[in-house]
Amino acid sequence: SRSGLMTGDILIKLDGREIASLGDAKSVYESTLDREAGKRKILVEVLRKGLPMKLVLDYNRTKASYEAEK
Fold first, then answer.
1. Which phi and psi angles does 63 have, rounded to 5°?
2. Across-strand partners of 42?
3. Contact, 57 vs 4, CB < 8 A?
4. Which pLDDT does position 66 carry in this prediction?
5. CB atoms within 10 A of CB 44
6. Calpha distance 70→23 (Å, rounded)
7. Residue 10 carries which DSSP code?
8. Most confident of 5-9, 27-31, 54-58, 64-68
9. Partners of 46 in beta bridges
10. 48 with 38: CB under 8 angstroms?
């Protein structure tokens, strides 16, 4: 089965970088958009129900599609 972020997860790190604000998360996410197809994965560390968890988010979004939605 597939899993990912869930309601209530507390974001701790993205790609090894600590996240203190939504701006931090956005910055890390945007930096991953330049990765070539097949390498667009983000290691996410969260607290879920008080327990630390590591997830890998795999996505195919391009920088162009992201910019078009701004």
1. -60, -40
2. 57
3. yes
4. 63
5. 21
6. 15
7. E
8. 5-9
9. 11, 53
10. no
